[in-house]
Amino acid sequence: MKKILLFAALLSGLSFTTADSGITKKEKKSAAKFLKETQNGVLDAIKGLSNNQLSFKPAPDKWSVEDCVKHIAATETGLWQLTEGTIKQPANTEKRADIKMSDEEVMKNIENRTTKVKTFAPFEPQNTPFKTLDDAINSFKENRGKLIEYVKHTDVDLRNHVATLPIGSFDCYQMILFIGAHSNRHMQQINEVKADPAFPKE
Fold first, then answer.
1. Do residues 163 and 170 lie in contact, with contact meaning Cβ atoms separated by under 8 Å?
2. CA 93 → CA 109, 113, 162, 195, distances in Å?
């Protein structure tokens, strides 16, 4: 229940904090680039789709393109709020021993769709606050833009604030990479929907 509550405290918009030491210029540049690329990946994948295409589901229990975007936007907010909550707590350097993935492995493993993971209820498309696809897109673009600017300029000691998720522990720099990789994971899902033989032609 505690883990679920960490994720459920979401959807009130993003805010950003600063602290005293930080990550390298190279790390900032790399993360900002990754966040921008994965943002563009989602937006390019949905560009020009009709309402029929956006709402198409390969099966009754599968997500549509619109569902994927709503999930991405809601999770974007929730993951950052978890990350920011960790940053606001005192540094927990001792938790670094619990981290099992390198930065590269975070990006690779989170976006890898060979392992299926059921999301928490607040992040299921029907439970998000987004009434329309445009609402979800605008939220995603706004929050991703804020996050890109944040990682470019922050002086927060991201490496020594460690977040614990059901799937493992990550320092807060890795959590930012996690956010980008998560949207890339579902960009791939969008492309899988579009590749379905029954996907509408228009």
1. yes
2. 24, 31, 7, 45
Q: How far apart are CA 151 and CA 70, in angstroms?
A: 24
pLDDT exceeding 70 applies to what percent of the chain? 90
Q: In whole angstroms, what is the distance from residue 54 CA to residue 200 CA?
A: 9
Write down all domains in the chain, each with its CATH number in brackets.
30-194 (1.20.120.450)
Nearest to 153 by CA among 2, 4, 10, 16: 16
Amino acid at site 179? I
Strand spans (E) along the chain: 162-165, 168-171
**Are 80 and 14 contacting, i.e. CB atoms less than 8 angstroms apart?**
yes
Q: What is the pLDDT of residue 4?
A: 40
Cα–Cα–Cα angle for 180, 112, 160, rounded to 5 degrees:
50
The alpha carbons of the chain give a radius of gyration, in whole angstroms, of 17
Task: Decide: helix, strand or coil at residue 104.
Answer: helix
Asked if residue 14 has pLDDT above 70, the reply is no
